[in-house]
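Many groups now describe folds with learned vocabularies. In that spirit, our science desk offers one protein's residues alongside their backbone shape tokens.
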Amino acid sequence: MYWLLGSLVIIAMMGVLAVADSLAIPINSLIELHNANSWLLLLVIIAIVLIAINQRQALSIKSVNVQKLSSKHQPSQPFFSQDTSKYFSSSSKFPIRIVNYLLIMILAMGLVMGSALQALMGYQQAEATKITESMRVQALVTIEGISDSVYDGVTNSGYRQVATVSHISPLISELTAQELDSAKVNYFTSMENSLSNNFFNDTSNESSDSNIEYRVLLNAYPKKGSKSAQVADLNQLRPGNQLFMTLTLAPLATSEQALNNPSGFDSYRWLRGRHIDGVANIVTTSTSSFALDESSALEADSRSYLKRFRTRIDQGRWQLRQHFYQKWAGQTTATQQAKAVTLSLLTGDRSLINRDTKDLYQLAGISHLLAISGTHVLFLAIMLAGAVVFLLNRLYPALYRHIPRWQVRWWVMISAAFIYALFTGFDVPAARTAWMLLAIGLVRLTLLPISTMRVLLALAVLMAWFDPYVLWQAGYWLSFIAVALLLKYDSASQSQNNSVLSQSEKPLSQHDIKYSRILLIKVWLIAKRVFKLQFWLFISLLPITLLLFGKASLWGLVINLFAIGLFGWVIVPLNLLAGLCYLLWPALADSIWVLVSAIIGNLHDLITWLTSLPALSEAWLYTPVNMAILLMVLLAMLPWLLPRGLISRWLALPPLTLLMMTVYANQQSLATSPTLYILPTGDRYISAAVLQYPIMDNEVGAKDNQAQSAKGSVSWLFLADHRPSATRTMPSTLTAEKLSAILEQQLRTLSIKRLEGLVVQTSSAGLTDTLTTNDASNTFKPNASELLPMTVARISQRLPTNQYWQAGRSDRWFKREKLYRETSESNSANNAAHVTTKTYISPKSCEQNDSWQLPNGDLSLQAMTGWSKIDDASVWDCTIAIDSRLPIQILQYNAADPLNSPLATSQLLTAIPSTAKNTQPNNQELTMQAQSLPSRIVVDADTHQRVWQLWSLLCQAEPFDNRAYGHHTWLGHSASHLATDDIKRQRINEVITYDDNALEAALSLNAH
């Protein structure tokens, strides 16, 4: 009953949050009247009453069974008296049992409904404080905790910090740093006047709207110019510091962090889980900050004292980071990352870990070791409890007359656990360990018959009641599920090991042979148990990992075998010991940290060497997972989760077979219909689209399209940089490593293992050195970024690629590729042997009229634009026309669930109707007439108006010749220079943009 009721409570709360977030439920005034804390207390009381009634019911059933057993051993009583006593006792207790069962049912339903209402109240409280529209403001910023990352222009790392903004006023004109300093002086003056005037409290309520506070995520990225040094000073901000800034506030739902979700990780839910109300981009900062205590903004109440205590702890974390950050620029990258991981294992601060190290840990499947888990908290609690008990045994053993020794150890452990959990940010794993220690101690103190598994379930439900948005955090699910699996596995395997050891202890002739045999058996059992445990955890957590992150590393099954022991028994204890020594003897702590960093550095070298082996390069598992697959996994694991013998484990075969068939069918379904996926890249000006086209066997039922069978599929990847040269825009924060990793993950989730072709539709100045025009006023300079060509260089190493079309001139391709190869090898010296064995692809200039087609003629690609022989880079961009015999769906790739990718938002051009009648603009239902007609998709990438001007002069008006009556779709960026006349000449019926903004030429065409 307990597990069923706890599962229903969590499922109800998750359902309410999902429905409320998708339907945007308005705030209900009736729900606003309830206090969340009082409602939480009511839920706890109902749960306690329900447990007490159920426990009493269970005890009464046990007593009845005991009476039955005792009555069997007393045959001296008359048969009539026994029969009548049983009749009267059962008839009198039957109504009581009915009442108990009804009461349990009512309380259980009330608990589930109350939990759903608690989730709804949490949602509406978050909705009431969120930012609803974008605005530029001047505000007072209060730093909360330590930053998520540090500002570094060398490594292109931005500054991200959770902060509270208050005293918000609209920004009428741009403010300088000196003007913000003046605002600080005025703020102090107003605060002093408010404290000296008694009537200020009466008038402050009238201006309460101006004192709205938002909890935001501050962002600042590397910039060129004089402001870079000023923004770099943000790294020196301590927790609790306050300063005035000019900010650009944006709602969370429309922010860049929430919209750009290329890797499958749901950034929106992650930020909502942290109670972030919006995103704030830093424009200007004041030159100086002041501490929180100086502002006199906090009143002397309990919450202010708790906030100050938390700020003191966060300042200690910041000081420890600054200690590790000393002389950072003069160290090698390997030394920096070893120290960064050491700091992360001590305080949970991952701000100094770069992207490469995070990718290395993800590839090795040990990213969970970077987080502060229950092991860290438990180790420190045991160490401190042991030290305190040791000192008490020597100095004051008389204390044990008043307090038992286990209680002294318990009080020290929970105190250390809570303080250390606060010091590490009080994330879910650390908080769960601290509360578990407290709960288990209370169970032992009160002698309640409650198992550890039930304590874990109760703690999971309580944390969800206290903060419903914790259900959107990956750490919540991974932490509780992993601990539950460990407890379940430990209880099942311990009895097996004891039975094996008891059988092995047979009388032997020689005494030493007996003990050596037992020792070998124990070592074998430990090794076997560790491997089985790791395999059990890997298989059990695999669906959750795929659902939350979109991919899982197969290396984790191997590397975790020795990494968990190394971290748990060597690195973490030494690191915690150094942290304790830092308080008393900093020099000794530095020596221990040098040793820990050396161990971690060697571990990085070993993992890099292992993951770079050519035979084991395919380490990622990309399988789309949805709730149906999770349900089948749960059904397959159910016989192993329930007590042995309750359900036959052979019953796991049907759901396991269905699971394998479903996964295989999902993989095959991705390649059975012609589809063009628009892939998110994380940059609104960088576009990526992949065409997946099945190769049909025309020999089988050539007259009937439905009878044709697919023999495989062909894939083309299109990349373009639509950043306009005439407009000033923010530079891209993407790197070739990051973009190639994002694209590789997306392609593999679509079951694409090789590419027929790769097209970069925009030219790059980094590849061109033969532009010899002397007319400087009329010269168009191509994009200087080498992002896309270098991305191609990396993708072609991971996915076999037959062709590479590059817009513009590629005179310096081989030179840049060689330099890029040498740079990659120098960054990972152990990977050099693996890299040099790779073959590199050669580019082909994407010229107008270049074409490619399938042997059966079902699909063809043709370059509509691109004239690199003309000494003008403005006409080098290459627009591709895709002609298909079958209709091609255009989908917006959904990283969270690729199988359910939605249709791309389209703009139907009513001025140019399609001759394929009844063709739906959203591509959902195509008639047989539309299916029999060929279709064309124009993938545009122009960055200058001269491209289409030259096309209109040189090319024919009818692009399809005898196939001109198909459905024409244009796909490009809203910043395109396509004119209305070009749309008419190409007979475009439908317009789709990468950034979901309307194309200006299409709007003007529909207006006429």
